[in-house]
Design goal:
This protein has 231 residues and is of the alpha+beta class. Helix content is 15%, strand content 26%. It is built from one helix and eight strands. Strands 1-2-3-4-7-8-6-5 form an eight-stranded mixed β-barrel.
Length: 231
């Protein structure tokens, strides 16, 4: 009896399986890049800026019994300045406007509205704080998002790179036709309920810029303080 010839048939895997496999690798890679794109600014802030700005122990002149804890959740709308601190936002001099410029950040003639609330439309001057050029502390809120989306003309992103400023950098104010130049002398990071950043000191003319930090989060508040330069 002749030897029987045996044949084995190997079925080729469908080509579509290979395509799906490549597509899955693409999705994993894209997801990893997207995660890195979002997380890297926060990590870099922690590495390069957090230690230098960790001196958030501002002495509060307000008794602790008067401080109300702020209940900020992910659903809080932080485009409204009244959600940033637990105290009410006084509405004195509502609708008074002036302009603010920060040359180093490319911010030019940004609108500041006194006693307003909507940070998507302008910077907000905390009502009840001193006006620029006056003795006291002009407190100004500005919104921020991830630094890669910084846009000096978009009020939702205007303070996204505020943390990159240095001691000695200048802030220019024009109010009622008068120009004022301020020089930065201090940076701090404080908890949201620390309302001492709103305090008034009348030995000189100061401005305080406040935004959320790390960039793209609402965990803390970055406080940049500047004093007027003598002419």
């Amino acid at each position: 009896m002749k030897n029987a010839v045996r044949y084995m048939y190997i079925k080729n895997p469908p080509k579509r399986r290979g395509i799906f496999k490549l597509f899955s690798f693409f999705l994993i890679g894209a997801g990893t890049l997207l995660l890195f794109y979002v997380v890297f600014p926060i990590l870099s802030w922690q590495i390069f800026y957090a230690s230098a700005l960790s001196s958030g122990n501002i002495i509060s002149p307000i008794p602790k019994t008067t401080v109300v804890k702020q209940n900020i959740t992910s659903s809080s709308n932080l485009t409204y300045a009244s959600n940033w601190f637990p105290t009410g936002n006084p509405k004195t001099n509502v609708n008074k406007e002036y302009s603010l410029s920060i040359p180093k950040l490319g911010i030019k003639d940004a609108k500041v509205i006194v006693g307003s609330d909507d940070l998507s439309k302008s910077l907000i001057h905390y009502g009840g704080s001193s006006l620029p050029g006056e003795y006291g502390n002009a407190v100004i809120f500005g919104h921020s998002i991830l630094p890669q989306f910084f846009d000096p003309k978009n009020y939702k992103a205007i303070f996204s790179t505020l943390h990159t400023l240095k001691i000695g950098d200048t802030i220019n104010i024009v109010s009622d036709g008068v120009a004022y130049k301020y020089s930065i002398f201090d940076f701090k990071v404080v908890d949201p309920e620390n309302i001492s950043v709103l305090e008034q000191t009348y030995d000189n003319s100061y401005i305080t810029l406040i935004t959320c930090t790390p960039p793209g989060t609402y965990w803390k508040r970055l406080v940049v303080k500047a004093q007027i330069e003598k002419l």
